[in-house]
Sequence to fold (486 residues):
Amino acid sequence: MRFPAEPFRIKVVEPLRRVSLEERARLIREAGLNIFAVPADSIYVDLLTDSGTSAMSDRQWAGLMVGDESYAGSRNFFHFEKTVREIFGYRHIIPTHQGRVAENLLFSTVLKPGDIVPNNIHFDTTRANVEHQGAEAVDLVIDEGLDPGIQHPFKGNLDPAKLDRVIHERGREHVPLVMITVTNNSGGGQPVSLANVRRVREVCERHRVPLFFDACRFAENSWFVQQREAGQQNKSVAEIAREMFAHGDGCTMSAKKDGLVNIGGFVALNNPDWADRITNLLILVEGFPTYGGLAGRDLEAMSIGLREVLDEDYLAFRIGQVAELGGLLDKAGVPIVKPVGGHAVYLDAPAAIRVSRAVARRLALPRLRDPRGRGRESHVRAQGPGERRDEVPEARAGAARDPAPRVHHASHPLRRRGRDRAVQEAREPEGAPHRVRSAGAAALHRAPRGTERRGRARDARNTGPALTPNRPLRPAGSCRRNACPR
Ligand SMILES: Cc1ncc(COP(=O)(O)O)c(C=O)c1O
Fold:
């Protein structure tokens, strides 16, 4: 093991049940090859997301017991407010029950139709909330951030020259704010450097546009800065976070990631007028400003989690574990986005499709005399045991290519590229359906620990659904307290 051992002891366990190959095949078929529709109870190793899946610490659980559920003025809110102010440095702290609500409240308040929001790459809920206001979400990540194979320490950086140009072209009056997502989830969990934040800030100041962060994985980003950015090694992760946020005017946060809780989020900002308007909307859609859609106990767990996530031993373990998984996949020839992201390993889907297609061809060679032909061979492999090709409706084939249709993900730049390439490949005469060619990769996502090896391989060929391009792979049983990343 090349990453540090867990800096925690596990004292609660949740029993899991083994699911037979036949049952898994049936469940996947019943779910129409959509992994989001498979009941979680029947998944032995669930690598879907880190979002809200953290196991809470003993102190967080103890925090639940001191929850003050008063309608107004709960002591947990004041604790939460103090914590967020200390870490993020912003004046007005508005709790919400998820990150997307924080986005919705902010954008409903500050955007109007025709506006644009520049970002390195918008996460899909962020993009959807921008577009819901009739505004345009513009992705301005550096060029390296769009190439899965290029090694770069800060592939999440926003290109300041592109930003400057876009603000000039569209007019400052149509840019109510600029955002930076740390780490850049939709670009492969890639970090943003402090130097880049400074340069973006300069551009924003020149045009008098506020800068906000999508802060979901702020601790992870700060850890990368400490590890990779010249001159930052002697600062603590907390100091780096504080410095980064000091260049901004506010942030939205899903605490289901680096807040280490199962539910929670917030908007934090300095502008008192925006804060008033957001708070009024909060009362309308979430709740009173001292609980914002959460219970007092949730606020307490969030305050504790936000401090605990800054533990550098924990971050070294969590990020190291992801790097280890990425290294193993890379060694095994699975095409991944490089460098390995902070919270997940991302498949380079178009390349994975090419690799699995080559493997499929080789597997098909001995069957060339089979009148069903090569393409047919692939179709057979796409099916569950005992299922005939003509039993798989075309609608399901679509679901297999895109097992988890999510808001606007088609317009995601990396995904768009992947899709263009995939479409091109699909036009080639001998092309097998995507679900077949990415089945091997899907198996990595789904293979249950303890399953007999051959069964696992067979399962992979026969029943594994294709991954959505860039769907992250997470290490099994992962992260602190099992959390694994989205
Ligand atoms: C970068 C980023 N922003 C925003 C969100 C939305 O947060 P939530 O799921 O709490 O609404 C997510 C969730 O995965 C995310 O990764």
